[in-house]
Amino acid sequence: MEKRVQFDFEIDFTNGGGIQGQEFRLDIAGDDISDQELAEYIVEDMRLLMVGEVRILNKKIIHEKHKRRSV
């Protein structure tokens, strides 16, 4: 079975404001992903600019089929 990560996140922007997500899920290639790698993945994948602090919360690895197609 493939693995995904489920987590909450909070992102602050350097020009004010922020976004957050709850129970967000992403496909992962291996058995685990660091908070730093996950933060970088979110920022890049969502094409966010002027990002300040990124907080990853309540992270857990789940066994679930990947949702994205391999590119």
Q: What is the distance, rounded to the nearest whole angstrom, between the alpha carbons of the first and last residues?
A: 19 Å
Number of DSSP helical runs:
1
Report the sheet with the most strands, covering strand number, pairing sense and barrel closure.
3 strands, antiparallel
How many DSSP E strands?
Answer: 3
- In terms of DSSP E residues, the strand content is over 45%
Proportion of helical residues: 10-25%
Radius of gyration: 13 Å
Average pLDDT reading: 92
Shape summary: elongated
Biggest sheet: strand arrangement: 2-1-3
Order of helices and strands: EEHE
Give the structural class.
Answer: alpha+beta
Give the low-confidence spans. Answer: none
Detailed description of the structure:
- With 71 residues, the protein is of the alpha+beta class.
- It is elongated.
- Strands 2-1-3 form a three-stranded antiparallel beta sheet, with helices on one face.
- The protein is built from one helix and three strands; from the N terminus they run ββαβ.
List the helices and strands and how they pair.
Elements: E1 3-13, E2 18-27, H1 35-45, E3 51-63
Antiparallel strand pairs: 1-2, 1-3
Summed up, what is this model?
With 71 residues, the protein is α+β, with helices and mostly antiparallel strands. The chain has 1 helix and 3 strands, in the order ββαβ.
Could you list some keywords that capture this structure?
71 residues; alpha+beta; three-stranded antiparallel β-sheet; 1 helix; 15% helix; elongated
